[in-house]
Amino acid sequence: MVLSHNIAHNIPFLSIFLAIFGGIVTPLINDGQKSRRLHMFLTAVIGLLSLLLLFHVNFNQERFTFVMGHFPSPWGNELKAGPMEAVLSVTFSIVMLLAVGGGKDLIEKDILYEKQSLYYVMLNLLFGSMLALIYTNDIFTGYVFIEINTICSCGVIMCKESGKSMLATIRYIIMSILGSGLILFSIATLYIVTGHLLFTHLKMSIMRLINSGTYDFPLVITAGMFTLGIAVKSALFPFHTMLPGAYETTSVSSSGILSGLVIKSYIIFLIKVYYCVFTLEYLRDIKVTNLIFFMGACGMILGSVMALKERRVLRMLAYSSVAQIGYIYMGIGLGTNIGVTAAMLHIVTHAVTKPMLFICTGRMKDISLEKTANHRLKGIGYKDITAGVGFVVGALSIVGIPLFAGFASKLYLAIASFYSPFKMAVALIMLAISMVLNAMYFIPPVVDIWHTLSDSDANSKIVPKFIPSFNVAVILFIAINFFVGICYNSIFGIFELGIMLIR
Amino acid sequence: MIKLITTNYFEMTAIILFGIGFMNILLQDNLIKKFIGLNIMDTAIYLYLVSYGYISNRTAPIIREGNWQYVNPVPSGLVLTGIVVSVSMTAFSLALVQRLYKRYGTLSFDEVIKKLRSGEAQNGSES
């Protein structure tokens, strides 16, 4: 026992409460810097609490229920936490902290001073809603926090208040609304056929319905609509159209958080619903896993192809995210526990990589003196070594080079494919093609960044200001990347334990 | 088939309304009409939920003396929560549309994209 049970069991609620409390208190501060400090402090506290929770649940091999209020199930509301939730909460806290810390100078440049505290209100609520999606044991609570997440994401996307960012927000909100409609319809149908909203009772009722053969059609429709709704919200190919504009027009910290964390929180909720409500066996029987395997595989290839065609680095990173989301869905679509575990590992590896790429790109664009898009990053690696190295490490990780984080999840995705004989060949071929494509679209910007500068180049005249917070954040991101890339067996073990306890 | 429709007319109406709302969001060019589609879609789901929550000859779940039967309050609670969420989304979306209108002087989505692209072309390419 690491902590007393009483303390440990309160951590999930406390984490969500602290983040939302930060959102409520921040408007009262009305000062950008103080709001940022409060946000980072709360995120660090939540990260530490989550780390304690991780040690506790991993040591005790425990998954517990926290009852909210005085009404026990099936009437009350519940949170549930185990090793899987704890490791995700730790990852989200660290990435959130580093993304905001690393991009704080750019946030100050991009957002009007009087609006900065409102930006941190959005970030606090966004973080709270992501934690709620990780911990909740109630499907309707999940829906409510999905919507809070969407509104906060839109607030974060339009923080620059340019015409482009407003258009990107409209696109984002339209796609999100379509996804939400499908999710709400499926939740309403689930409640109508089962009479429950808590995962545990939903699962028991659904098992009874499956065994008795009643309500077959509504159940299939519900599972399909829920999957499709989450797929739309998490920008799985072909529903990815909202991403490039959104990531290009907002501040780079926001792009990192949206790409690395927000989209993943929906997928985590989907995985929880798959295990705690429908069961993977049932989803395999009704072929829902085949559908997401197909869409994931298409996303892996076509996302990379679109990234290859893109010249603007931020948009290229957005398309790269579409491809990486494809990897995650392909892992889930394998329809096996090891496939889902590999997908969870990919969520972590992508979360620690993509925000680093975004903040490094933002920094390099910021110091560049070149006017044209094609030469903006030319030779900039020599002017800001940390940003250049951070970008290269991120690129190598996304490609899947050994010792970097991305390698671990891709290795496990390949191993997982052996457990699904009918999908093995397709999965392995898609993985191979996609990795080659990843390397192809990352080579031009890396070559550009480390291009030798001559005196005639505008970028040779750069004298960059040293920003300690950016350097510390990128160095920590690199260290975490190597840590995940080397100690991936332990993280995979925690996810395996988490999946075993969730079943 | 006709029997199925006539005995489940609430569900059928809800599904048709959901479809109308969904297609409205997808296909309408006018931004205000797009978000009216959101409200139609959400209202369809509330109708669907409420139709199952209501049982004739039963009352609202408020404690009173004597023998009485009440309807399940959960669907109504869900609908209320859903309405709050839907109102927030609508308010946010309309505020955004208003800003776009102030900047570009149009409610047409395609027109906004055109004006933005022509502005971009004038300012030169951005990275």
Structural commentary:
The complex is a heterodimer of chains A (503) and B (127). With 503 residues, chain A is mainly α. Chain A has one domain (5-502). In chain A, 78% of the residues lie in helices and 2% in strands. Chain A has helices at 5-29, 32-60, 83-102, 104-110, 113-135, 139-157, 163-194, 199-212, 216-233, 243-249, 252-278, 280-285, 288-309, 313-333, 337-367, 385-399, 405-417, 421-449, 468-486, 488-502; strands at 64-68, 77-81. In chain A, strands 1-2 form a two-stranded antiparallel ribbon. In chain A, helix 3 (83-102) packs antiparallel against helix 5. The longest helix of chain A has 32 residues, at 163-194. Chain A is globular and about 80 Å long. Chain A starts with a helix and ends with a helix. The model of chain A has no long low-confidence stretch (mean pLDDT 92). Chain B has 127 residues and is mostly helical. Chain B has one domain (2-57, 70-123): Helix Hairpins, CATH 1.10.287.3510. Chain B is 75% helix and 0% strand. Chain B has helices at residues 2-7, 9-27, 31-53, 73-104, 109-123. In chain B, helix 2 packs antiparallel against helix 3 and helix 3 runs antiparallel to helix 4 (73-104). Chain B is elongated, with a radius of gyration of 22 Å. Chain B starts with a helix and ends with a helix. Chain A binds chain B through residues 140, 143-144, 147, 150-151, 154-155, 158, 163-164, 166-167, 169-170, 173-174, 177-178, 180-181, 184-185, 188-189, 191-192, 197, 312-314, 365, 371-374, 376, and chain B through 18, 21-22, 25-26, 31, 34, 38, 41-42, 45, 48-49, 52, 74-75, 78, 81-82, 85, 88-89, 92-93, 96-97, 99-100, 103-104, 109, 112-113, 116, 119-120, 124-127.
Element layout with pairings:
The complex is a heterodimer of chains A (503) and B (127).
Chain A: H1 5-29, H2 32-60, E1 64-68, E2 77-81, H3 83-102, H4 104-110, H5 113-135, H6 139-157, H7 163-194, H8 199-212, H9 216-233, H10 243-249, H11 252-278, H12 280-285, H13 288-309, H14 313-333, H15 337-367, H16 385-399, H17 405-417, H18 421-449, H19 468-486, H20 488-502
Antiparallel strand pairs in A: 1-2
Chain B: H1 2-7, H2 9-27, H3 31-53, H4 73-104, H5 109-123
Helix pairs in contact in B: 2-3, 3-4
